[in-house]
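Try this one yourself first.
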């Protein structure tokens, strides 16, 4: 999953209670997740581990006997947020001396000793490769007077657990791969997640079949670089196209999504598999990062703007009504006004449905962080970022307005949080829709919605009766 997918937003305050508590509750745990979908998914795995041990998940930190912090390190402010959060936990610990605190995930993998030094009140620290050891470390920490207990593995040696049921009863994430073999110069992910390891195809098919039998209709296949999935298994060519077809043949799975593909690896066979597998949704997240060939080379991305545009055009030709989203970094070291204008040109040509854009932030141990003599001044970054937002929001507004009047197939998520008189759901193109419907509308069902209006962020509509 690219920094692309590892976009450094703080995505969840808490993780949904899984309802998997077994036996008598042996205390309550609270999980705080920083970071991307992979981290959210890892937090669901942690929730499952502790629930199966008889503990109960709580969304209220004041009720917790155990707090697990799942960390992110993709952006600088993620570090700052973690240390700020640990300061808050220190205060809570002072009022509740029995509270146990575990810190795991990407920043813990990278900075375990720093965390132990800065926050000695933490009971245990674990990394990305030994998340399945979290409960054992929790027990060890309680019996071990020397704190914190720190256990970091260099690599994940095997697939140790199926994906936990996630997101909702009808929608699940399924990890197909961890790690990344690329070396994008701005990215810290290979340092904290290691080399690519693909989950065997049969295991994934069994997992998705099992989810389908439990009522899941939508799966999102997760990996750092999904279209190189399987290259480590075959030692030659990737198996992502075969995986899409295999998952697409599982009864009950109506929608398949995946994140994220890498533009350098998106092949004709992947595009063909997307086009030929009806349950693969018409949505492609294809991270551009920059429209300047010079900056793409400095980022070590392995493609040019011409090649990117060509593959995007191939995908749009093969897959009708394809929505395309992207990631863009503004202010990579040495980026000139000309480089930035080339990014704006590609953005205008690509007509994205949506984008995640970030101002460059240097991460320790990456090559880009060593280019500190060439950092773009913050005020220039901010100005370029704001100019980019104007082009992106114009593009998404146009794309959304093209859908007004159409009938869209919507997977219902529930009542709208913005307006409880409306429902919320997603189209196959992953567009958020708020719509009016009758009382028979149920979460997890699929229905047709007539689109009546649009903004650059969402669509509005009415259930078609
Ligand atoms: S190194 Fe590149 S491809 Fe790999 S996770 Fe980072 S941004 Fe994505």
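Now uncover the answer:
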């Amino acid at each position: 999953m690219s920094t692309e997918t590892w976009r450094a937003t703080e995505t969840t305050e808490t993780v949904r209670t899984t309802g998997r508590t077994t036996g008598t509750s042996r205390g309550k745990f609270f999980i705080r997740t920083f970071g991307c979908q992979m981290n959210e998914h890892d937090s669901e795995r942690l929730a499952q581990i502790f629930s199966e041990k008889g503990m109960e998940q709580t969304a209220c930190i004041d009720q917790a006997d155990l707090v697990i912090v799942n960390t992110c390190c993709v952006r600088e402010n993620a570090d700052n947020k973690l240390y700020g959060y640990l300061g808050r936990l220190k205060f809570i610990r002072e009022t509740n001396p029995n509270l146990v605190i575990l810190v795991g995930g990407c920043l813990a993998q990278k900075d375990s000793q720093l965390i132990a030094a800065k926050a000695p009140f933490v009971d245990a620290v674990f990394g990305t490769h030994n998340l399945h050891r979290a409960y054992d470390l929790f027990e060890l920490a309680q019996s071990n007077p020397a704190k914190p207990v720190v256990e970091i593995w260099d690599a994940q040696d095997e697939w140790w657990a199926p994906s936990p049921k996630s997101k909702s009863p009808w929608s699940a994430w399924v990890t197909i791969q961890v790690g990344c073999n690329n070396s994008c110069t701005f990215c810290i992910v290979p340092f904290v997640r290691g080399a690519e390891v693909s989950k065997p195809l049969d295991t994934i098919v069994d997992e998705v079949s099992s989810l389908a039998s439990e009522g899941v209709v939508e799966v999102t296949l997760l990996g750092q670089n999904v279209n190189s999935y399987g290259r480590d298994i075959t030692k030659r060519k990737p198996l992502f196209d075969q995986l899409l077809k295999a998952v697409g043949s599982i009864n009950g799975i109506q929608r398949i999504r995946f994140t994220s593909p890498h533009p350098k690896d998106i092949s004709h066979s992947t595009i063909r598999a997307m086009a030929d597998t009806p349950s693969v949704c018409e949505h492609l997240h294809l991270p551009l990062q920059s429209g300047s060939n010079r900056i793409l080379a400095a980022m070590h991305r392995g493609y040019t703007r011409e090649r990117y545009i060509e593959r995007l055009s191939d995908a749009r030709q093969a897959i009708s009504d394809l929505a395309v989203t992207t990631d863009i970094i503004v202010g990579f070291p040495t980026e000139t006004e000309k480089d930035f204008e080339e990014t704006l040109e590609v953005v205008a040509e690509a007509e994205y449905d949506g984008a995640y854009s970030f101002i460059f932030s240097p991460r320790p141990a990456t090559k880009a962080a060593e280019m500190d003599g060439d950092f773009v001044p913050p005020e220039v970054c901010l100005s370029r970022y704001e100019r980019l937002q104007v082009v992106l929001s114009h593009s998404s507004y146009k794309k959304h307005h093209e859908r007004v009047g159409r009938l869209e197939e919507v997977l219902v998520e529930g009542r709208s949080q913005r307006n409880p008189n409306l429902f919320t759901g997603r189209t196959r193109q992953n567009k958020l829709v708020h719509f009016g419907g009758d009382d028979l509308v149920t979460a997890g069902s699929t229905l047709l919605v007539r689109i009546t209006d649009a903004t650059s962020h969402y669509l509005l509509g009415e259930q078609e009766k």
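Discussion: The pocket of iron/sulfur cluster is lined by residues 1-4, 180, 182, 184, 187, 189-190, 224-225, 262 (CB under 6 Å). The radius of gyration is 22 Å.
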